[in-house]
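debug: dumping io for the single-chain case to check the tokenizer round-trip. Nothing else runs in this session.
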Amino acid sequence: MPSSSIGLLVSKRLASGLVTLLVVSLMVFIGTEILPGDVAELILGQQATPEAVQAIRDELGLDRPAPVRYFEWLANFIQGDLGQSLVSGREISDLVGRRLGNSLMLAGVAAVIAIPLAIGLGLLAALYQDKIADKGITAITLIFVSIPDFLLGYLLLLFCAVKLGWFPALSRVSDSMTFAEQLHAIALPCLTLALVVSAHTMRLTRAAVLSVMNQAYIEMAELKGATRRRIILLHALPNALSPILNIVMLTLAYLVVGVVVVEAVFNYSGMGRMMIDAVSKRDMPLVQACGLIFASVYVLLNLTADILSILTNPRRRRPK
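debug: decoded output
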């Protein structure tokens, strides 16, 4: 397929990603607007006079039409101005910087554990299809797929932290800690994310490899006497790389968004925990910034997965 056609497909995906982000930003803004309670009253307290409340509303521009405030907020966000926190008065970009780094560290360590484990188990299950190993791996992953993130986190917290004392119950990291100490502190939230994500990824990897095993060239290799291990590693796996790459990128996207619940369970100082605290305090600029950052990362990783699929899978490049 000509490179111009590939470029056109990629451009269409990029355009759809921008439209998706625009729609998500509108949903985030509307979602924060319809939350109950008055920001000005929460800032001043219940004993505040109506005059003081109105003065705060005028200062924050809350009486202006919602469309005006939305487009102003979106324009500032695009320029890198995330605004100020209503609770602390600090720049949101300063608050987000460290917390975002903590969340990315948590998701990154979980990905290093989950992705190789999931792909390895997926290949093993495909190699021993319908045998004891395949059934055992499938049953175990089905259990972890069925357990919600927060419940698995609490179970690990109960047994690994409270009863056995292997890891700390609260995952707190600081600059004074060594990298090994930080890894020990975030072991349980990383394990929670890794177990849930690897279960999904393993099942998708197994399905991707087995779908390739039904092709005619695989039957030809079998007729030539090639072993199943050789067929999977040398014939099926290279041709299944496109869906596997797509699975890996979607896994990374899930990890970044999935930290919200896990951070709340383990009281980890990341973006997810900060967003939950901001919602409880009705710190709307901080909630909006966190929500749009999470959405941007998720859409970007999904867009990357789609583009990689186009570049590595010739069938995705065929005109429809």
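debug: round-trip ok. Residues 24 and 295 are 7 Å apart (CA to CA).
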